[in-house]
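User: Some background: our group keeps a shared notebook of sequences we're curious about, and every so often someone picks one and asks for a predicted structure to add to the entry. Today it's my turn. The entry only has the sequence so far, pasted here. Could you supply the structure so I can complete it?
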Amino acid sequence: MPAVVLAETIRGSGPRDAAVNRELSDVEEILIVDERSGRIAGGLLGRHRSDATVDALIVAATIAGGGGLIFTSDEHDMRRLASGRADVRVRAI
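Assistant: Of course. Here's the predicted structure to add to the notebook entry:
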């Protein structure tokens, strides 16, 4: 999971963060966005004429990591950004 996802979901402390923290216990690694992922994300944004930067960073991290499955509540944008990538699968939650 890219660290930017934490910024999108964590709000400090309290009940809202409890559910997120439970889900984080299953996450194997928190990824720092590096230049490679940033360039992949920028390319995705340009190719798909999108401004969904965090979504693009999630897809880029998946690509940089060799592919995988993305669970999301924003299935439309994720599928669009991952289109043409057989190594990236998107599942709605």
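Suggested note for the entry: The mean pLDDT is 90. The CA atoms of residues 44 and 81 lie 6 Å apart.
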